[in-house]
Design brief:
The model has no long low-confidence stretch (mean pLDDT about 90). Helices cover about 85% and strands about 0% of the residues. It has two helices and no strands.
């Protein structure tokens, strides 16, 4: 019977450790990339506030238009 308190030194355990290390590295790289992207976006927003406001207004209009369209489709479906 295998001693469960002894460390597992099989190839499977080594592969799991390797996968865990690669996953941790990938997550750290992703965290750094997202942090850099957010910083860049905030800097751009601070340098160009009018453009930022225009983009935000456009996005809000697009969402509002989609919501309006969906409500009209639902009204049409319920009328049928």
């Amino acid at each position: 019977m295998k001693d469960k308190t002894a460390p597992d030194t099989t190839a499977e355990a080594a592969a799991e450790d390797s996968l865990l290390d690669r996953t941790k590295d990938a997550l750290a790289d992703a965290r750094d990339a997202v942090s850099e992207a957010v910083t860049t976006a905030l800097d751009a927003a601070k340098k160009h506030p009018a453009t930022t406001a225009a983009v935000a207004a456009g996005a809000a209009a697009a969402v509002a238009g989609a919501a309006y369209g969906i409500s009209k489709l639902r009204e049409k479906e319920s009328a049928e």
